[in-house]
UniProtKB/TrEMBL annotation:
Glycoprotein listed as a keyword: no
PANTHER family, per the entry: STAGE II SPORULATION PROTEIN E, STAGE II SPORULATION PROTEIN E-RELATED
Record-listed 4-aspartylphosphate modification sites: 53
Name this polypeptide is given: Response regulator receiver protein
Lineage: Bacteria, Pseudomonadati, Bacteroidota, Sphingobacteriia, Sphingobacteriales
The organism's place on the tree of life at top rank: Bacteria
Pfam families assigned: Response_reg, SpoIIE
Length: 374
């Protein structure tokens, strides 16, 4: 957990006291003096814990709890009631709304901190246990949307890295489809959403992608635009994918001629480090998200890559970061960092460690694939 707490109480003095106490013990807090203000905060902020008074004017804490339970983004966030009363009926009402605990307002500060630590620790341990069980099921079913290793090619060196959000299996998927000794398709996609929902749909997208590639290869057609159009047509007309969309970057490697071609669907631009002039070039696709419209407007382009150049395919999580509890996305920040690292002559392993260092607040699945000429 990242120790982010939302505090809700109509008594501002009490709220500030609690905020200062929690901050002094390393917690990051947001405060709200009403349910309306709290729900507005939750539109852009997902805390690790919510602590709310239940005796508030206009809208009380019980109604707030009901609203939280109806919000898909925050319904699973642990919830504690703060109260100055000790009414067994009210306590039971809160517990019936799946509140984890009640904390009296006059509790000694150290006891309050201990309670919060114990609750967050118990929730985190349960989270780890559930995640471990789900991973075991996925492993038994041999469900993987990221390969163990990249293929060995004659003229290109390929590397990749995938780090899921909060260690949940996520919606980013990677695949390498080696047709023969000459042609290899490289895939990076991102199903919209987080955690298990996106992970579940990623296998269906991968299945369609693999099938479309095999059909086109069998017909002798290696056009990336044609392949994307076939995938998009199937996804668009499949009711299973209602309101489920995915980005896709697809690169075809011609290992005999040493050439790369690229097409994309709603993806981020490919980034190429040009070693000759120490600059970063971008290759942007015009294609739309898979399944968004019947005609995705897909086209393809060739990319020249010389020795010492390096090509990066990235998912959108690579440019996402968090400031004051709000998600921000800035591709230029990622580009500037990559360019700086390449100019310093850092290895790919060093760059990966810097991009995924322990101080970075990850708010989405993060994936990249790199290409270098041998």
């Amino acid at each position: 957990m990242n120790n982010k707490i939302l505090l809700v109480d109509d008594e501002l003095f009490q709220l500030k006291l609690l905020e200062n106490l929690l901050k002094s013990h390393g917690y990051s807090c947001k405060i709200a003096t009403s349910v309306k203000q709290a729900m507005k905060i939750l539109d852009n902020f997902v805390p690790d814990l919510i602590i709310s008074d239940y005796s508030m004017p206009h809208i009380d804490g019980f109604v707030f709890r009901e609203q939280v339970l109806q919000n898909e983004n925050v319904k699973d966030v642990p919830f504690i009631f703060l109260t100055s009363f000790n009414d067994s009926e009210l306590v039971q009402k809160g517990l019936d709304l799946s509140a984890l605990d009640y904390i009296p307002k006059n509790i000694p500060p150290q006891q309050l901190i201990s309670k919060i630590k114990n609750i967050t620790k118990a929730v985190e341990e349960q989270h780890k246990k559930s995640l471990s069980e789900l991973r075991k099921v996925a492993e038994k079913l041999n469900l993987k949307n990221v390969p163990k290793e990249a293929p060995e090619l004659n003229h290109f060196e390929i590397a990749f890295h995938n780090q899921t959000f909060q260690n949940y299996p996520g919606g980013d998927f990677i695949d390498f489809i080696k047709v023969d000794e000459r042609y290899t398709f490289v895939i990076l996609g991102d199903v919209m959403g987080k955690k298990w929902g996106a992970w579940f749909f990623s296998f269906s997208f991968l299945s369609y992608i693999r099938s479309a590639i095999r059909i086109c290869v069998f017909d002798g057609n290696l056009s990336l635009a044609t392949i994307l159009n076939k995938i998009n047509q199937v996804v668009y007309h499949d009711d299973f994918f209602d309101d489920v969309f995915s980005t896709l970057s697809i690169v075809l490697i011609d290992d005999k001629e040493g050439k790369l071609s690229y097409s994309g669907a709603g993806d981020l631009p490919l980034l190429k480090y040009n070693a000759a002039n120490k600059s970063l070039e971008t290759f942007k696709s015009q294609g739309l998200l898979l399944g968004f419209f019947e005609d995705g407007n897909y086209e393809e382009q060739d990319i020249e890559i010389d020795k010492e150049d390096e090509l990066f395919i990235v998912s959108d999580g690579m440019m996402d970061f968090e400031i004051d509890g709000k998600k921000k996305s800035d591709l230029n920040v990622l580009k500037n960092r990559l360019l700086s690292y390449k100019k310093q002559g850092l290895s790919l392993e060093e760059i990966k460690n810097l991009l995924f260092n322990e101080h970075k607040t990850q708010i989405d699945d993060c994936s990249f694939i790199t290409f270098k000429r041998k």
